[in-house]
């Protein structure tokens, strides 16, 4: 996944915004004022830190050497994902969406409704 593709995936999510609270090099993607992804998009190798369910985080780290405990973050709840081409783009996209969903799930219901979040709408009708 390229830096532009990663940025596009993050910003395609309802209500997502890119901020730079730490420094001009680190893109911090937020929803509802809460962080769901961090990446120095110009860094090589490219990586992204994403929130993750603690049990799934351990499983992902065991299965993929490109996924490690969140760098400078709570390693129980965050993974850092090396985007060196070894992981499929669809998998990275799913991890970004899962991170976003974990954050939105903790927002007030009114905010969830404004975001038109699937978790508050329920499953799609067939």
From TrEMBL:
SUPFAM superfamilies associated with the record: YjbR-like
PANTHER family: CYTOPLASMIC PROTEIN, CYTOPLASMIC PROTEIN-RELATED
Protein name: MmcQ/YjbR family DNA-binding protein
InterPro entries: YjbR, YjbR-like_sf, YjbR/MT2646/Rv2570-like
Keywords: DNA-binding
MF GO annotations: DNA binding
Superkingdom, taxonomy of origin: Bacteria
